[in-house]
Write a structure and sequence with these properties.
The chain is of the alpha/beta class and about 300 residues long. It folds into three domains: about 5-85, Orthogonal Bundle (Arc Repressor Mutant, subunit A); about 95-160 and about 270-290, 3-Layer(aba) Sandwich (D-Maltodextrin-Binding Protein, domain 2); about 165-260, D-Maltodextrin-Binding Protein, domain 2 (3-Layer(aba) Sandwich). It contains twelve helices and twelve strands. It has a five-stranded mixed beta sheet with strand order 4-3-5-12-6, with helices on both faces. A hairpin with a 2-residue loop joins strand 1 and strand 2. Helix 1 (about 5-15) crosses helix 2 (about 20-25), helix 2 packs across helix 3 and helix 6 crosses helix 12. The longest helix has 29 residues, at about 60-85. This is Transcription regulator protein. Belongs to the LysR transcriptional regulatory family.
Length: about 300
């Protein structure tokens, strides 16, 4: 029997008629009848008896069905794989993000992605931007999310969304009436401060923003992640400057105070992909999910 014979035989066994098999396989009923006759001629015995518009399987057909069951299951899996590949959702979507994005932005977007791709898997990891780029170039991840603009001949950078920057302080640090006004560098002068590593994009921007302030902020701790900076603020060590995803995470109004900072340079979230290995189609849904999230 040919593959097409097996496919038609299985469709008739499922539906009980040539008309039902034609609908299942999206072909005409005469085409099914013709292929069935050819299949029976090939095997040398009848597969079905015609009775009142129905096709009743012969004992030989029932025995053949037992042998073909594993094949039918494999064929169904192949169809699912083809369908998933066409939609870009078969292979796990490998996402790497900087810690602040991985902890405070990506989870909500990934939740939407999982709802839209229930049969697919997502792999999410957190690391610093330098490691993200290495992973992309080594094809260890499909897409990277960072707040640092990247210029590399083998990588494609796409703006995903804006990212406001906030100064955060322990609860009751500032008078309530100041919380709605952007903070100025002079208000941080001499204050206990949690610094972000100046090798990061935001760290360099904040360092430039505070340049010339006298006295300079009293740096107590220097960290590499915004999430850690926030934890130190909650421990009442001092003020920190973080992205708004970190600032607004959890019960921010009870744990910390926040005030917007107007930095001279725009801050955004970027998606980075490998130019020679495009990300799966489902990555586009993830980016749209991020854009759809409320600020």
């Amino acid at each position: 029997m040919r593959l097409r014979h097996i496919e038609i035989f299985s469709a008739i066994m499922q539906t009980g008629s040539a008309i039902g098999a034609a609908r299942l396989l999206n072909v005409t009923q005469p085409a099914i009848s013709k292929m069935l006759r050819h299949a029976e001629q090939t095997v040398g015995f009848a597969l079905f008896l015609r009775s009142g518009g129905k096709l009743v399987p012969t004992p030989e057909a029932l025995r053949l069905q037992q042998e073909l069951q594993p094949f039918d299951e494999q064929l169904a899996r192949i169809r699912r794989v083809v369908s998933n590949l066409a939609s870009g959702s078969e292979a796990p979507l490998r996402i790497a993000a900087t810690p602040a994005i991985a902890h405070h932005l990506a989870p909500k977007a990934v939740a939407l992605w999982c709802q839209a791709h229930p049969d697919s898997e997502c792999l999410l990891s957190a690391s610093h931007t330098r490691e993200l780029l290495y992973s992309l170039l080594l094809n260890e991840v499909d897409i990277a999310l960072t707040m640092q603009p990247i210029s590399h001949p083998n990588l494609i950078t796409t703006v995903v969304c804006d990212c406001d920057i906030y100064a955060i302080a322990p609860a009751q640090w500032w008078p309530q009436e100041r919380l709605d006004t952007p903070i100025t560098p002079d208000e941080i002068a001499g204050q206990p401060f949690i610094s972000i590593d100046i090798r990061s994009h935001l760290g360099a921007s904040v360092s430039a923003w505070l340049a010339g302030v006298s006295p300079p902020p009293d740096v107590k701790v220097t960290v590499q992640t915004y999430t850690l900076a926030r934890s130190l603020v909650e421990a009442r060590i001092g003020i920190a400057v973080v992205d708004h995803f970190t600032a607004k995470a959890g019960h921010a109004d009870k744990e910390i105070q926040m005030r917007r900072i107007d930095l001279p340079t725009a801050n955004k979230v970027y998606a980075i992909t490998n130019r020679s290995r495009p990300a799966p189609k489902s990555a586009n849904f993830l980016l749209e999910a991020i854009r759809s999230l409320p600020d």
